[in-house]
Design goal:
Layout: H1 2-50, E1 54-59, E2 64-67, H2 69-74, E3 105-110, E4 113-121, E5 130-137, H3 139-151, E6 153-160, H4 163-166, H5 172-192, E7 196-201, E8 204-210, H6 211-219, H7 224-235, E9 241-246, H8 252-268, E10 273-277, E11 282-286, H9 298-313, E12 316-320, H10 327-342, E13 347-350, H11 359-365, H12 369-372, E14 375-376, H13 378-382, E15 389-394, H14 406-410, E16 413-418, E17 432-435, H15 442-451, H16 461-475, H17 484-495, H18 500-507, H19 511-522, E18 525-527, E19 531-536, H20 543-555, E20 562-569, E21 572-579, H21 585-590, E22 595-596, E23 600-606, H22 610-624
Parallel strand pairs: 9-10, 12-13, 12-15, 13-14, 15-16, 16-17, 19-20
Antiparallel strand pairs: 1-2, 1-5, 3-4, 4-5, 6-8, 6-9, 7-8, 10-11, 18-19, 20-21, 21-23, 22-23
Helix pairs in contact: 5-7, 9-15, 10-15, 10-16, 15-16, 15-17, 16-17, 16-18, 19-20
Length: 627
């Protein structure tokens, strides 16, 4: 028993000793740990203070808990900064009950310097949310990137528009003086830009400048084209420039390719303008003058020969114009149909009379069974279309405006005959493209083609009258976009049997249309003292025709530079625009997805209300007039 007692006492004493030693060691380690943490915190704080970037710690309410000296220096302050971060950096203010990590990474401009702000959520050891914000000064990096972008090269191709036509009949001495004047103006311009200009043909120059210089030229909207136009006006010779500039590519080869694409686009839009071409976007400058009329008809003869070959090789022909067909689209389509019939081909004519502009033409077609039978709807034409079908597109070059765009994807060969200035959207894969902005109408182009086909081709009164009616409509009775070739085409059609009585009937309006047009004129208003804008709030029969006619009437008002009719259609709003030479409605309405000519243009705004369309138009006009 005594032995057991001593053993128990010994064991208890040993336990006390071991426990005391363990407690002492634990306390020793705790002291070491606290000392180590203190040392680490001191080191961490020292490191954070010595960081070359701003460092800030806040709680979840945005209250500043700690910051280094660099952050204070960013704010132009010294010592400890207290309060909420929103007091000093309102750009980083958060909505109530939100948390900073949603920002992650952002940029902040402060006192002329740019900082990249990054956020990190700190560990929640004490159960309180905190956020570490770092502010890295990236001003020099941004400036370096900007300088790099500004010093990147861009390549341009400069061409004198319609060179052979402009100098035809000019004696050699005067021609040399004029070209020397153009060379001098161009070299002075490029000299100011610190670029390179190299003439590699009588009418073409290679231009190399930097992207920074290009941006400065954009601010002045390339005044060089106005200066060259003035030279032509002084000498009574229509000299203008077209410039295509390739931008944004890494290699010189790609830049040159874009430059030539831009030049083609400028030329297709009538010249006298600059086109900046990126791989994914296009910008236009200029285009103040109408396209000069070409005196030679060589291209018309070549196009006629090519079209004849394509018609003869095709299994059948599908002819199609744009949505809401007008008399120009229908007349030119009937002209091509007459050619196809002459060569014994099966023809399908796709017309859209949704706007009612062709009611009277359809009534006249009833007396001509050969044409009545060929008119089909767009969906029906799909079943007659195959790989061997020739598709001829009249009076448009935009795939989105075709009556039945699916037909274009089913054929192997397509022909485009159009007179509108070329837009960015284009049918590029056509085998024959005849787009001439100088022409008054597609009907004029088709009439010239007919004259260079076989001499045995004769026109019946319906086709001749429809073609002449198309010319009359698009020229507004031979007032707009009318040249010598327009009158020559009209004379040929009159000799070929065009019936003035039938044309008058095609152009007549019913009584309700006349009243509606008068009401639209009555409700018009003047904007900026030089633009008339009218509105049709409701969808009405022949709305497109009424809008176009009203725009023509309003342009005759004294001191008016442009007229617009904003009218309702199913599913949206359309705009019909007219102008004199002082305002380019094509360039204006292209910004709304439209297009057309310098004097005549339109736009279709799907899903847009009348008031929204008017606001968009007003904004464009304010920018145009710098108001």
């Amino acid at each position: 028993m005594i032995e057991c007692y001593f053993f128990s006492v010994f064991f208890f004493l040993a336990f006390i000793i071991v426990s005391a030693w363990h407690i002492r060691q634990k306390r020793k380690w705790q002291i070491c740990r606290e000392d180590l943490n203190r040392r680490i915190n001191v080191v961490s704080e020292t490191v954070l203070f010595s960081f070359p970037i701003g460092v800030l710690v806040t709680d979840q309410k945005g209250t500043i808990q700690w910051h280094n000296d660099v952050f204070a220096g960013m704010l132009g302050r010294e010592g400890v900064i207290k309060g909420k971060i929103v007091q000093y950096l309102p750009e980083l203010a958060l909505r109530r009950h939100t948390w900073f990590p949603r920002w992650k990474t952002s940029q902040l401009v402060l006192n002329g310097r740019t900082y990249q702000v990054e956020s990190r959520e700190l560990n929640k050891e004490d159960g309180e949310n905190r956020l570490l914000l770092t502010f890295e000064d990236i001003t020099e990096q941004i400036n370096l990137d900007r300088r790099f972008q500004e010093e990147r090269p861009v390549i341009g191709v400069v061409q004198i528009d319609n060179f052979s036509e402009a100098f035809q009949g000019v004696d050699d001495e005067k021609r040399a003086v004029l070209l020397a004047g153009v060379d001098k103006v161009l070299n002075e311009w490029v000299g100011r830009l610190e670029g390179i200009l190299k003439k590699f043909a009588d009418d073409r120059y290679l231009l190399v400048i930097t992207q920074g210089v290009l941006q400065e030229s954009q601010k002045t909207r390339f005044e060089i084209i106005d200066r060259v136009r003035e030279i032509g006006q002084e000498s009574k010779i229509p000299i203008t420039l077209s410039i295509g500039i390739g931008v944004g590519e890494e290699t010189l080869t790609d830049l040159a390719r874009l430059a030539y694409l831009g030049l083609d686009l400028a030329q297709g839009r009538g010249g006298d303008q600059v086109v900046l071409k990126w791989s994914n976007k296009v910008l236009y400058y200029g285009g103040k003058s109408s396209a000069p009329e070409k005196k030679t008809k060589v291209r018309a003869r070549v196009v006629a020969s090519t079209l004849k070959h394509l018609i003869q090789e095709a299994a059948n022909i599908v002819i199609m114009g744009h949505e809401n067909s007008d008399l120009d689209s229908a007349g030119s389509s009937l002209g091509v149909a007459r050619l196809a019939l002459y060569y014994g081909k099966q023809v399908y004519l796709v017309l859209d009379n949704a706007a009612g502009a062709l009611d009277k033409l359809f009534a006249a077609v009833k007396d001509y069974p050969e044409y009545r039978q060929m008119i089909v709807a767009g969906r029906d034409a799909l079943q007659y279309t195959g790989r061997d079908t020739l598709l001829v597109i009249c009076d448009t070059h935009k795939p989105s405006l075709l009556i039945e765009p699916a037909i274009l994807t089913k054929v192997k060969h397509a022909v485009v005959l159009d007179h509108h200035r070329r837009a960015e959207e284009f049918i590029d894969d056509a085998q024959l493209i005849y787009v001439e902005p100088y022409a008054s109408s597609a009907s004029e182009l088709v009439t010239e083609i007919i004259q260079y086909m076989d001499e045995d081709i004769s026109l019946d009164p319906l086709v001749a009258s429809a073609l002449l009616a198309g010319i009359v409509v698009d020229t507004k009775n031979f007032v707009f976009q009318t040249g010598v070739r327009t009158f020559e085409a009209a004379a040929f059609l009159r000799r070929s049997g065009a019936d003035p009585g039938l044309i008058r009937m095609l152009l007549q309006d019913d009584y309700d249309t006349v009243l509606q047009r008068a009401q639209v004129v009555k409700n018009s208003e003047i904007w900026f003292g030089q633009v008339v804008v009218a509105t049709m709030d409701q969808v009405v029969p022949h709305g497109a025709v009424i809008a176009a006619q009203t725009a023509d009437i309003l342009l005759t008002v004294e001191n008016v530079k442009a007229s617009f009719v904003v009218y309702a259609v199913q599913g949206g709003t359309n705009i019909s625009g007219r102008s004199n030479a002082d305002l380019n409605v094509q360039v204006l309405l292209e910004q709304l997805g439209g297009g057309g000519h310098l004097n005549v243009a339109g736009a279709q705004l799907k899903g847009v209300s009348i008031e929204e369309a008017k606001e968009k138009l007003k904004g464009l006009l304010q920018d145009y007039f710098n108001i």
